[in-house]
Amino acid sequence: MLEFRQVSKLYGQQVALADVSLSVERERFVVLLGPSGSGKTSLLRCAAGTEHISEGAVYLDGELVDDGRRPVPPERRQLAMVFQDYALWPHMRARENVAYPLRRRRVSSSVADRRAREMLARVGLGALTERYPSELSGGEQQRVALARALVARPRLLLFDEPLSNLDPSLRDRMRVEIGTLVRDARATALYITHDQTEAFGLADQVGVLDKGRLVQFGTPEAIYATPATAFVARLTGLSGELPGDVARVGADGVVTVRVFGRELAVPTRDAPSPGSSVMVMVRPSAVELLPPTRPDCLFRAEVLDAAFCGRGYEHVVQLVNGHQLSSVFAEHRWERGSHVGVRLAERGCLVFARGPAADGVIQGVADTDSLKTGRLKRALAD
Ligand code: ADP
Ligand code: MG
Asked: What is the pLDDT of residues 20-77, one digit of tens each?
């Protein structure tokens, strides 16, 4: 439904997107995850046509809509966008806001009005159709925006951090509603966020943006199990990072890493060389706390914090030499100041090269040589 082929976007010398290739299949829900400034909004705008690409090509449903020369204008792309700030017309009632995209497509006012009411009922606002945006809460306004986006059955729905302005309890509920409504409507969605929970909760597939590059694309499960870079690992939730050295590399894809004098076997897709410095990145799910006397624990640690979280406790523990592991779940409380043993499961430990230049990257990210023109290379080199 949407395809980006080697797309780059520059604002003057500022690179917002670098050589991004991405495709969103029909009826899929794709989420792009990245920190602030990673190029998420630029990518969405290039899909919408409110920004034009500098290089590459954008296709919508097989049609070339931008090749950096004559872009198809936004109103001819049959898309709908949902924004963080709702972007409703303040002088229109909820019903009129939702009917607006239909009216623009020359649907008769009676049909547009009926469909707007039906859509508002589906988002749970059947009783509030006559309200103006200023008479609605943030969550209600976002529902109106969602109804407006869905009503004209666009080819593609674009979401730019739509939950950021809502408070946390409402955010969770709206996330579920968006996921349900979009899937019930069999719509195709591209959704951007900086929030990992939101991304994993909504997506069929997640793309991760790091400084304008798409560094990984896959299911939430695949990204969590095998993050392509240290950056992706950090963005998707770590308990902590432990420095180590490679002791042995097995033929079976298992590398043995020495961490604080102890040995830890970790599966890896790469082959770091023996003796090289690595970082072991630990997912919270890999950490288990045990009585310190147990022979099967890898490290001793001191409990710094134990926070009740409903289904149990989340702990922060300090290993002997100052390194901490946080978000360590246990069903019962290990008291602050007590000593515990720490066991690490292989699954959930990830090994990346250490060093300033590598930034933990073992698996290759597109390097600058793959970029097509001198302009982009120069801008990246600056
Ligand atoms: P995100 O949505 O992930 O926060 P953006 O796409 O807004 O990222 O921005 C990506 C990069 O492009 C940032 O470095 C940002 O400062 C820059 N940028 C965005 N819009 C403009 C603009 N209109 N002019 C110049 N630089 C811009
Ligand atoms: Mg943004």
From this structure: 999 999 999 999 999 999 999 999 999 999 999 999 999 999 999 999 998 999 989 9
In DSSP notation, 111-171 reads: HHHHHHHHHHHHTT-TT-TT--GGGS-HHHHHHHHHHHHHHT--SEEEEESTTTTS-HHHH
Task: List Cβ neighbours of 263 (8 Å cut-off, separation of 6 or more).
Answer: 247, 256, 257
Determine contact, residues 57/46, Cβ cutoff 8 Å. no
For 347-364, what is each residue's pLDDT tens digit? Answer: 899 999 886 544 444 333
Domain segments of the chain as ranges: 2-230+365-380, 237-359
- Give me ligand 1 centre to Cα 50, in Å: 14
14-24/287-290 β-pairing: unpaired
Neighbours of 227 (CB within 10 A): 26
Q: Which amino acid, one-letter code, is at 205?
A: Q
Indicate the Cα dihedral angle 214, 218, 223, 227, nearest 10°. -50
- Rounded to 5 degrees, φ, ψ at 371 are -80, 145
Q: 13 in ligand 1 pocket by Cβ < 6 Å?
A: no
Ligand 1 atom at minimum distance from 39 CA: 6
Q: Considering the entire predicted model, what is its pTM?
A: 0.88
CA angle 270, 275, 281 (to 5 degrees): 55
Q: Kindly give the distance from the C-alpha atom of residue 382 to the centroid of ligand 2, in angstroms, as a whole number.
A: 23
Fold of 2-230+365-380: Rossmann fold (3.40.50)
**CB-neighbour burial class of residue 186 (10 A; exposed 0-12, middle 13-18, buried 19+):** exposed
Strand order in the sheet with 14-24: 14-24, 2-11, 55-60, 63-66
Residue 293 burial by Cβ neighbours in a 10 Å radius (0-12, 13-18, 19+): exposed
Ligand 1: which residue has its CA nearest to atom 5? 39
Cα separation, 339 vs 287, in Å, equals 15
**CB distance 116 to 108 below 8 Å:** no
Is the beta carbon of 169 within 6 A of some atom in ligand 1? no
Nearest CA to ligand 1 atom 13: 37
Residue 131 pairs with which residues in a beta bridge?
A: none
For residue 45 and ligand 1, the question of a CB distance below 6 A is answered with no
Confirm or reject: Cβ of 9 under 6 Å from ligand 1: no
